[in-house]
Amino acid sequence: PALSSASPCTPCLPPGTEKTPDYWNEGARRRLELALALQPVTRRAKNIILFMGDGMGLPTVSAARIYQGQLAGGSGEDSVLAMETFPHVALAKVSWAVPGVVPVLSTAPNPHPTGLQTYTIDRQVPDSAGTGTAYLCGVKSNAKTLGLSGAAVYGKCHTTFGNEVDSILHRARLAGKSVGIVTTTRVQHASPGATYAHSVSRSWYADANMPKEALRDGCKDIAYQLVHNTDINVILGGGRMYMMPKETPDPEYPSDPAQNGIRKDGLNLITEWLSSKEVPELGQRGAVPRHHRVGMSYEHPGCPCWQGAQYVWDKKGLDAVDDDSVSHLMGLFEPKDMKYELNRNTSTDPSIVDMTEKAIRILRRNPNGFFLFVEDEIDHGHHSGRAKQALMETIMLDQAVARAGELTDPSDTLTVVTADHSHVFSFGGNTPRGNSIFGLAPKKAKDKRAYTSILYGNGPGYSIRDGGRPAASLPAAEEKDYRQQAAVPLETETHGGEDVAVLAKGPMAHLFHGVQEQHYIAHILAYAACLEPYAAEPACSTSRRASHSPRCSSQPLLTLLALCMASYLAGG
């Protein structure tokens, strides 16, 4: 059971309703009944979707809830985000715990809240690379490193080798599932990078970003690893320039040299990726017709399913992709990161909802299931001190969560929503009910000047004029690029160190409980989907038989036989 979806509730109530005890007692009784009826789904998960709100701390979630409700015409406070309807909640720690104490993986039903601890081995307040390694690979590591254990040293190429750790995405692909990444950042960025890369520097996007000694010692850039490390079925986000040779014009901005490709090795990783999915031309022994080009997507004895690979770079191209004709799709929609939702050109750039839907429609065709990682750049809005940008990104991530729920079955799909870390973002000021989340506090500060409800602990919003801070004012504070005031001057606002939430529904979601270390997430995902190191669990063999039994019809086998005969005759 889940709570109702978001709606502007307050205006729908008769005047004075909230002032009666019956209103609150009845609402609480209904929620109690839902809680009593809640039963854990203890079967194993066929599919896993991990939504990552980069920088989505609890204050961000709360403020986004209010903003969403106000956009819908309500006061906002009683709005409900789609992610908030998930029945199981936990907290993840982002700061240090007792060394050597490992969270116990209990399979007993537990509906109690959970928290995650997000620190890294060397940082009290983490970055997105170290946290990505934790929640995707299952181990804590050092800041700024990707897919490596804590034995690897930031920036030291030679410490890479032998210290690699594999992500849940990689393990899911080895188990025969389809896998995908969706992000509004560049696909080589820290969070998505942790799904496939092993790098001692999160900044080694392309070979042009690497020091000569690292290249000499055999380290590969993150874009190269995207194409070569794991066979990823769906890749959607930004990051074109890191995939193309130096001075190659960008297809969307051909007259802007700043958007050109930057690779020094001359590789075009987009064409290389496409070529790696091709099969021989008709006329060669064992070939299949060109319109079936691409590698075997769903690798199971007796069930070869040949599909196509496709690359797109704008919304028109993405919309034109036939979900049933491709098993591999790469969509790179900007040279670097994608635009904020409030700045997005809706006719040329897909939204995170568009990309999530396309990914699910392609991935879910695999009878063995899929793993999908979805990230939104909430973080970038906060770093720039622009709260409106960050909160709209949060709302868009939540809309993607809602759409994913419509496209999947909660009985076989484990969906998890969490954050890698928080930010020094807050809102308060004794504001009245219905006050715009971007509005002013009702009373002026001690300096006799107005201030906004939303404030940052540090960042570019710090300003001193005429011996004091400038007074906040409307409507300026409501503008999308308005920078809320900050207490300490910094070029970019910083991450926060408090625990972040984990919200889950579907098979084994009840294992998210209490306050946990962040790397616990990866272990629950692996356990739920029978991936290593939990693939040999007794329940997994039963789960595999159930999911694999109907996987092949006679039609694909007959089609393959016909194609083989045609290719043999064509080859002489």
TrEMBL record:
Keyword Signal: no
Catalysed conversion reaction: a phosphate monoester + H2O = an alcohol + phosphate
UniProt keywords, alphabetically: Glycoprotein, GPI-anchor, Hydrolase, Lipoprotein, Magnesium, Membrane, Metal-binding, Zinc
Region annotated Disordered, chain positions: 1-21
Bilayer topology term: Lipid-anchor; GPI-anchor
Cofactor annotation remark: Binds 1 Mg(2+) ion. Binds 2 Zn(2+) ions.
UniProt name for this protein: Alkaline phosphatase
A GO CC term assigned to this protein in UniProt: plasma membrane
Cofactor(s) essential for the protein: Mg(2+); Zn(2+)
Cellular localization per UniProt: Cell membrane
Binding site for Mg(2+): 54, 189, 191, 375
Residues of the signal peptide: none
Family matches, as InterPro entries: Alkaline_phosphatase, Alkaline_phosphatase_AS, Alkaline_phosphatase_core_sf
EC number(s) on file: 3.1.3.1
GO MF entries: alkaline phosphatase activity; metal ion binding
Pfam families named among the record's database cross-references: Alk_phosphatase
Family statement drawn from the similarity comment of this UniProt entry: Belongs to the alkaline phosphatase family.
Binding site for Zn(2+): 54, 379, 383, 420-421, 495
Active site residues per record: 128
SUPFAM superfamilies on file: Alkaline phosphatase-like
